[in-house]
Design a protein that fits this description.
Elements lengths: L2 H12 L15 H17 L12 H6 L7 H22 L12 E6 L6 H13 L5 E7 L5 H5 L8 H6 L10 E2 L5 E4 L8 H5 L2 H12 L4 E7 L6 H8 L3 E7 L5 H9 L6 E7 L11 E5 L11
Parallel strand pairs: 1-5, 1-6, 2-4, 2-5, 6-7
Antiparallel strand pairs: 3-4, 7-8
Helix pairs in contact: 4-5
Length: 303
């Protein structure tokens, strides 16, 4: 054998063996299979449809709590009056009002003092607005000390407004409760917090409000607020709103209290005054309302 032939044979012995491919029917390793299964499960969870049942609104419970009128006749009269009350609110929300308002889709119902019927008005106004064919209504319980709406609807203990303000990791949509009343959604009060006024004045509050309704052109956000002269947070809450509905109890609220409450507003909102508990004859409207843009310190109807 020549020197060249010996060199070729030596090179052959130094070359590595070619890799052996596994048979086609051999399954992938256990770790790869687990990763694939987990990835598939994650994709399934991400696209799972919402299956939460609609929250039942118990009208009997609302009547017992004094938040709905008892009897068909009273209900019919109230429905007629609320149609008059909500029309300017709707016009403002759709840009048809006399003045273009910032955040006109945000409506707060309040009063000067406790006991004037503002929560009753809030609930019934929200129900009336929800009957509008082109809108849905988000009813928010913003009366932190009393939370009448939350209790009457049986939403005690459910996460709500205060929880999304305290915990920025929680999405506002997580606390919106869809009800079995068409076009009506609810946000309960959540866990109460000693720094309510500070939370209401925070940047987080504006972010939450935007998520609640500011980006949804066909959603009205209706807040029930504590009385303007009773808590500090009520005035802060009103400052975020485009429209304010103030309930005044006939024979109960003094003019000085009404004027003080009006002066606490920032003057840029649409302010509507509702005269509640008026002792008018049954042949007349028992729920008399004043509406319009009013200067500070002046009650509608004054000379």
């Amino acid at each position: 054998m020549s020197i060249v032939e010996k060199a070729v044979e030596k090179l052959k012995t130094l070359q590595p063996e070619p890799p052996v491919s596994p048979p086609a029917d051999v399954p992938p390793s256990h770790s790869a299979s687990t990763i694939e299964r987990l990835s598939g499960k994650a994709r399934t969870v991400d696209h799972a449809p919402e299956t939460a049942p609609l929250w039942h609104v118990d009208q009997i419970a609302l009547e017992r709590a004094g938040l709905l009128p008892a009897g068909d006749e009273a209900n019919d009269r109230l429905a007629d009056e609320l149609r008059r009350v909500k029309r300017p609110l709707m016009d403002n929300a759709t840009g048809k009002g006399a003045k273009v308002l910032a955040h006109a889709e945000r409506i707060v119902v309040t009063s000067a003092l406790p006991g004037e019927g503002k929560t009753f008005t809030t609930v019934n106004l929200a129900l009336s607005l929800a009957r509008e064919l082109d809108f849905e209504v988000l009813l928010v319980d913003g009366d932190i000390p009393k939370f009448h709406i939350t209790r009457a609807l049986g939403l005690d203990g459910q996460p709500g407004l205060m929880d999304v303000l305290v915990d920025e990791r929680r999405q506002p949509a997580e606390v919106i409760v869809r009800t079995d009343v068409p076009n009506l959604l609810v946000v309960p009060v959540g866990k109460r917090h000693p720094l309510t006024a500070e939370l209401f004045s925070s940047l987080r509050m504006e972010q939450v409000l935007e998520e609640f309704g500011g980006r949804h052109l066909r959603r009205l956000v209706v807040f029930d607020s504590s009385p303007l002269l009773a808590t500090s947070e009520s005035q802060v809450l009103a400052s975020h709103m485009g429209q304010v509905v103030m309930v005044v109890a006939a024979g109960h609220t003094g003019q000085h209290a009404v004027n003080s409450a009006l002066q606490s507003l920032n003057g840029s909102q649409y302010v509507g005054l509702i005269l509640n508990m008026s002792c008018l004859p049954t042949s007349e409207n028992y729920y008399y309302s004043y509406y319009g843009l009013y200067p500070r310190g002046r009650l509608a109807g004054e000379a």
